[in-house]
Amino acid sequence: MRKRTxxxxxxxxxxxxxxxxxxxxxxxxPVALSTPASxxxxxxQGDFNGDGYRDVAIAAPAATVSGxxxxxxxxxxYGTATGLNPAKHQLINQNTAGIPDxxxxxxQFGDRIATADLNRDGYxxxxxxxxxxxxxxxxxxxxxxxxxxxxxxxSGGTTVKNPQTLYGSYFGLSIAAADFTGDGKPDLAISxxxxxxxxxxxxxxLIRGPFAKSGSTGRVxxxxxxxxxxxxxxxxxxxxxxxxxVVTGQKPNGDHLATAVYYKGTPDGISxxxxxxxxxxxxxxxxxxxxxxxxxxxxxxxPADDPSASTGGKIHIIYGTSSGPSATRRVSYTQxxxxxxxxxxxxxxxxxxxxxxxxxxxxxxxxxxxAPGETFGDDSDYRASAGAITLFRGxxxxxxxxxxxxxxxxxxxVPGGTEAGDSFGxxxxxxxxxxxxxxxxxxxxxxENDPEGAAWFLPGASSTLYSTxxxxxxxxxxxxxxxxxxxxxxxxxxx
Length: 495
Fold this sequence. Notes:
With 495 residues, the protein is mostly beta strands. Helices cover 2% and strands 35% of the residues. It contains one helix and 28 strands. It has one helix spanning 16-26; strands at residues 56-60, 73-80, 83-92, 112-116, 125-130, 143-147, 157-160, 175-178, 187-193, 202-207, 220-223, 228-235, 244-250, 258-266, 269-275, 281-285, 294-299, 314-321, 324-333, 353-357, 366-371, 388-393, 400-407, 424-431, 440-445, 454-458, 472-474, 493-494. The strands form seven sheets. A four-stranded antiparallel beta sheet has the order 3-2-1-28, with no helix packed on it. Strands 4-5-6-7 form a four-stranded antiparallel beta sheet, with no helix packed on it. It has a four-stranded antiparallel beta sheet with strand order 8-9-10-11, with no helix packed on it. A hairpin with an 8-residue loop joins strand 16 and strand 17 (294-299). The radius of gyration is 21 Å and the shape is globular.
């Protein structure tokens, strides 16, 4: 299959009869509620309609809207007792009723997405970035929009004020939603550039909650991570009530060498506390059930591109403590490490996507690692960049390679088949969609049925980590996106 390069800089329903009319005018699929109107919302992260099942938002930032190419959309697939149901979906873009602004060419709405209950009404809200949005005459200034959850699904939106609207500031390059101050009010951390004449001037804007539909927020602070194009990952490493932040990206003026730093959440914001291993991706979760979040870092590069990398990519595990990431308890794995399925090969990109969740429901966080460049076959049957996912189990001693699962489209119960160029495992999300106590894995192959892409829903299971009987797949046409078009389907996932 033809490999397409994704550019580096990517640029509701209301209630009652009014809701249905708004949905139909906007071209959205009305959301059927599964709980009585009087039921209290679940309060679960990613549950946009409060019915007790977590939902999944799938970014499609290259989608055309009203003839505007790369305007961008987000497909929201609602959860049910049997998992994700693509028939129960919404498409949200900047022309959707109630969403601020207008869909324009190259906005790339949905390039980055996140979820949290920002107004604390019990319904999770969707945060959408469009880093290429034009603000006045300032091209690529960027914007971030909150789409509000309700018992009828996502409805209406509010723009998050950009503290410094500049040409090329790319506000919304990366977004993390969590309570960094521990006051019970979720905050937003957003990447942006503060001086377009200086490529090393990237900042983290911390916008404190609470957030209101009127646009009001708490105080705004700015931090300099010393990293170009910073990518933000939130989680509780030290085990207290405050979320922490891992920032990955490139060293300033460092020929694209990867780096990572750790910020500790404090009552006053975030504080840079430690440098970490070189990495381009990150995930945070409790792998050994000791109450502290462990940091998993991925460096999918090869040594030719990053001297600190390993052939085919590698991951680092940094275990959490009450004071943050351990300075001594750290371990790294490649696909050639003992007990890890398969072997390291140039271009595998092992570690490009990471997700932590308790797939086997034993109380320990498990780890999914995407290797979208994984290649299979020989000269007579060569399937380059078909992609694979490795599932690792957590245990009392931490991550273990015992019982690791090497997952491809040819694995038992996985729909489809392994083909060259699919890039299976390009994007991953772990969340308990069907509310059975097992984390479920949503995985993207962004070049499946080139150029469309596709999503897989892989329910968690005790013995095999994923269900060999209930796994499903769907493409962008099932959620209202066009057939045969490149939309960057699955460029990001949130739920």
